[in-house]
Structures are given as C-alpha cells and as structure tokens.
Amino acid sequence: MSSRTILVLFIAVLALVALSSSVFFVDERQKALLLRLGQIERSDFEPGIHFKIPFVNEVRRFEAREMALDAQPARYLTGEKKNVIVDSFIMWRIADVATYYTSMGGDEERAAIRLSQIIKDNLRGEFGRRTIQEVVSGDRQVIVKDILKDANRVAERFGIAISNVRIKRIDLPSEVSASVFSRMEAERERVAKELRSQGAEEAEKIRSDADRQRAVILAEARRQAEELRGEGDARATQIYADAFGQDQKFYSLYRRLTAYQNIFKGDDMLVIEPKGDFFNRFGDPTLTEQ
Fold first, then answer.
1. What is the pLDDT of residue 217?
2. Residue 198 or 238, more confident
3. What pLDDT digit, counting tens, does each position of 130-171 carry?
4. In sequence order, what DSSP letters do the residues of the chain get, joined into one string?
C-alpha cells in the first residue's frame, strides 16, 4: 500500500471522527445544554439532530421528565408545640436547564438535597401555624397548595419547578399519641354520658306521657262503662217494669222462684218453720201474691 493511499485513509478516518464528533442527538425525554469551554452557549434545543464544534463544544444532557423525590420522615412542631412525624414525597422537574446547571452544577443529588430542605422549611412553617387536630383531620389540599406556592418561589431561582407535594402519613410520637388517645377517650366518654343522660330524660318524658295517656284512656273507658251500665240498668228496670205490668202474678211468682233458687242450693239442709210471707207458698200454694 502506497503512502498516498495511507494518507487518504487517514484523512477519511479523521473526517469521519470529526463528523461523528460534530453531531449529537437530543431525545424528547431530555434537555440538552451546549457548553463552550465550560461556558453555556445554548440551552434551547428541540428534540432531534444538532451539530457542535468538535473538541470545543461539550453537550450535557438532563432528565426532562418529572422526577420523584421521597423525602425522609421528619419531626415538626405544631402550633401547640407538639411533635408530629410527617412522611412526604415531591414531584419536580427541570424548568430552566441553564439556571439548573449554573446553580446545581447539573448534580441531581445536590438538587434533591436542596429541594428536601425547601420542602422541610415550608412544612415547618405550615405545621407551626396549625394545631394537631387541624393537621390530622384538616384539609391537606390547603396545606399542599400553600407549600407549593412558597416552595416554587424559592425553587425557581435554581431552575426547578415543583409540580406536587404529597403528604403520605402524619404520625404522632408514642408519648403524644398516648395523651391524644386519652383525651379522645375522655371526650368520647363525656359525649356518651351526655347522650345517655339525654336519652334517659327523653325516656322519662315518654313514660310520663304514656302514663298520663293511660290514665286518661282508663278514666274515659270507666266513664263510658258507667254510662253504658247505667243505661243497661235503666233499660233492664224498664223491661222488668213493663213485664211486671203485663202479668203481675207471673212476675211475682218468677221473682219468688228465683229467690228460692238462690237460697236453696246444693245439699244444704235448712231446718226452719215455714212461716212468713217468704214461705207462704209452702203452706198454701193457692195463695195469691200480695
């Protein structure tokens, strides 16, 4: 192989290397930063193929998608000076790659540490303005909204946008939990006693009203019974009177026989002298009633 051929091959290889070094590709899931001798030259690359000057320009690529940062559980003081343990995570992304590179040096771990501190500061401020009850049973969306507003104001200086902050759990330390549970138990016991007292009072009212209604109903029933009994007695007396008026002898005989039936019952023996008006039929059956 001649020296001329070797030179041509060398130049071709050099050109190929230079061409490959001058072309770079930006994925749609990435943000690219073009550096010239360590200084930022361009940061607004669209996805696709781009060119750079070999050995002069350097391309740095960063994640363009949202990233999750699971923060370590930390203790915060509430407005009542009580400790709560909060477990949270952060969703964030690189908003301005040039600012991000300048402030964080393109180090994702450094950015995560800074973000954790920002969120902790805001959580500390939000929890410090609220009581334990407001923190545990309140609307967490309001807390998150306030945190996002303040945290993004700080994170913007680092080219970072925080899209979401989620509070996974809010726990109480064991010593606080015991006192809280004791207060909750005492409160529930107070409510239960109050409800039982109200129930007993209402039951007494119902019983009193039922007794009153019972007395009224019985009195009314007795009154009606007496009226009906009086009407029945009057009707019976009228019937007896009418019957006596139709046949006085028969009626007198019927009354006497009824009296005999009521007196002489069973196997009783009555030893008396049959004298007097009551026994006049025993002596002479032909006697007429007076």
1. 93
2. 198
3. 877 777 776 677 888 888 888 888 888 888 999 888 888 887
4. --HHHHHHHHHHHHHHHHHHHHEEEE-TTEEEEEEETTEEEE--PPSEEEE--TTTEEEEEEE-S-EEEEPPPEEEE-TTS-EEEEEEEEEEEES-HHHHHHHHTT-HHHHHHHHHHHHHHHHHHHHHTS-HHHHHHS-HHHHHHHHHHHHHHHHGGGTEEEEEEEEEEEE--HHHHHHHHHHHHHHHHHHHHHHHHHHHHHHHHHHHHHHHHHHHHHHHHHHHHHHHHHHHHHHHHHHHHHHHHH-HHHHHHHHHHHHHHHHS-TT--------SGGGHHHH-TTPPP-
Which token pair is 275? 């004298």
Q: Residue 78: count other Cβ atoms within 10 Å of its Cβ.
A: 20
Cα angle 236, 239, 241 (rounded to 5 degrees) comes to 110
Residue 246 has pLDDT above 90, yes or no: no
